[in-house]
Specification:
This protein is an alpha/beta fold. The chain has helices spanning 13-29, 49-65, 79-89, 111-118, and strands at 4-9, 32-39, 70-76, 94-98, 123-126. α4 links the parallel β4 (94-98) and β5 (123-126). α3 (79-89) runs parallel beside α4. The longest helix is centred in the first third of the chain and has 17 residues, at 13-29.
């Protein structure tokens, strides 16, 4: 059902919690798992390319230890737009991501809220 699962990651606690869902989905369906990290052009936690590379390597090790091979991608730009573009590029069947808030509605839209509007495939948002 889900041939390709896209799992965007960042340095948040929610990413680690969401990883279990992405892992289980990929295992259950024998899916190709693609892990994506977006380096933001603006200052912030995901602005440091070395930190992003380390994050990707930790994710790879974690998934491979669980017996699920994964592909790693690193891109630059605004996260919601880049995630949507990559999902289209790799023909993702689902995007699995976490959210930091308890609601997708706020004065400042979250990446998850924006992605729901932009994505070319279903988005599984893990609270």
């Amino acid at each position: 059902m889900f041939e390709t699962v896209l799992f965007p990651i960042d340095q948040s606690r929610q990413t680690m919690e969401t990883a279990a869902v992405a892992l289980e989905l990929a295992k259950t369906h024998g899916s190709r798992l693609v892990v994506l990290s977006v380096v933001e052009a603006e200052e912030g936690a995901m602005h440091n390319a070395a930190a992003v590379a380390k994050l990707l390597e930790q994710a790879r090790a974690s998934f491979e230890q669980a017996g699920v091979p994964c592909e790693m991608l690193e891109r630059e730009g605004k996260p919601a737009f880049v995630i949507g573009d990559v999902a289209d590029e790799i023909n993702a069947d689902v995007i699995v991501m976490g959210t930091r808030g308890i609601s997708l509605e706020s004065s400042e839209p979250s990446t998850a809220a924006r992605l729901i509007q932009l994505a070319p495939c279903p988005v599984l948002v893990v609270p």
